[in-house]
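Q: what sequence does this backbone want?
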């Protein structure tokens, strides 16, 4: 059964002027931010989990960090972004928000960030960066999540490409999709995580550490 866009949109929570401005900027400048139904689902799960500290891999312009901070006013969010131009944009948008005191932006490659730049543990990790590197991100940052913590991974569906055979995927994206498929197979059979895929937005994977 398929639902109409209007029906789905009737469940989307209203956003403030800054968030709407950021959504318009992202659309105009082709900056990938989380789709509205997906971020609403993510935020509802975060309300249930109620993490004190969240680590985000892939800040972009700061949209999801702000959304999470607004949802969890007592939470601390650390977010990592390697694109210098986007770091500037994110810091500017965050400074204009009402949750600037909750968010710390680290500029750098998430695979090269030193452990001493981060807190020892995070209750939740949100991965939304280079899709072909999800396995490496997971292996690097999952040790920072204690038992009972959750890792959230966006864009698992990759606009339908993950549902295709590799021969059907455009050649320039095959390595990324191969890595993404390998990661999904690996995590779904991992004995230390209870994982499930939610077909919302571009596909959200939720992995709870046992």
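A:
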């Amino acid at each position: 059964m398929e639902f109409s866009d209007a029906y789905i949109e009737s469940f989307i929570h209203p956003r403030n002027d800054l968030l709407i401005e950021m959504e318009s900027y992202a659309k105009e400048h082709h900056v990938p931010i989380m789709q509205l139904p997906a971020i609403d689902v993510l935020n509802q799960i975060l309300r249930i989990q109620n993490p004190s500290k969240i680590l985000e891999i892939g800040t972009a312009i700061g949209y999801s960090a702000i959304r999470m901070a607004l949802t969890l006013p007592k939470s601390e969010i650390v977010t990592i972004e390697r694109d210098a131009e986007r770091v500037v944009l994110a810091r500017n948008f965050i400074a204009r928000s009402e949750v600037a005191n909750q968010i710390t932006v680290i500029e750098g490659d998430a695979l090269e960030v030193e452990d001493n730049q981060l807190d020892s543990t995070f209750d939740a990790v949100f991965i939304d960066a280079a899709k072909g590197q999800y396995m490496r991100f997971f292996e690097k940052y999952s040790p920072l999540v204690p038992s009972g913590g959750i890792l959230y991974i966006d864009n698992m569906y990759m606009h339908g490409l993950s549902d295709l055979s590799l021969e059907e995927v455009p050649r320039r994206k095959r390595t990324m999709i191969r890595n993404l498929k390998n990661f999904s197979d690996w995590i779904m059979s991992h004995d230390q995580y209870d994982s499930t895929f939610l077909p919302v937005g571009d596909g959200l994977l939720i992995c709870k550490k046992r």
